[in-house]
């Protein structure tokens, strides 16, 4: 079934998103004068090429900039097909891709066998431009700001802000419609990072996965992640059992063990 430019939603002036069924992922495109910026590149080069072609239907402008919100495969494994665009990420994004890239490739191929061939063909292409706290970049004369607000879903999560449109792309610091993935996360840091993010929301906030949301959702998610940290501290202090904490979790019990176990690992000093 062909895709059309109409599948992209203009959520603010020349800021577009598309919600892909696979992994329920939100991809962003920011248009400036004569060029375009893409936020995240999906999980294989096949998916990246589909997305690239769909962007060509959206705009004749070339994609000159790519931003990776963090180093996970579903946000970076399509990078190669957007060259010669300049790719930006946090200073720990490229090292994270180099360190974990082959593990992620193997896990993807194992967990989703129908992707194995496409995943095997991926050229892992880390960002070559990086920053530690804040970067100001321009797409066709239009300012886009990149900010690192602290560890959260990984050690390299950033937000992408389009100031003249009031839009914030949250990456996977926020996730709508499912329990956030804590497997590479820092559950004790994440609540404060999410609160800092929420404080910056002035209009639409685009999570890495799920529906476009608002400040109230950002506040709710920060509180829910904070509750995971609180419950883990109760378990660590022997005031709750792990099963009791799972039952009290703000997320579904079936998906709450991993967040709490990850938080307990951080409380034991195993992640720092």
Characterise this structure.
The protein is of the alpha/beta class and 272 residues long. It has one domain (5-213): Metallo-beta-lactamase, Chain A (4-Layer Sandwich), CATH 3.60.15.10. It has 8 helices and 12 strands. It has helices at residues 45-58, 73-76, 93-111, 116-120, 190-200, 215-236, 242-248, 257-267, and strands at 9-12, 15-20, 25-31, 36-39, 63-67, 86-90, 129-131, 134-139, 142-147, 159-162, 167-171, 205-207. A 7-stranded mixed sheet has the order 1-2-3-4-5-6-7, with no helix packed on it. Strands 8-9-10-11-12 form a 5-stranded mixed sheet, with no helix packed on it. Helix 5 (190-200) runs antiparallel to helix 6 and helix 6 (215-236) packs across helix 8 (257-267). It is globular.
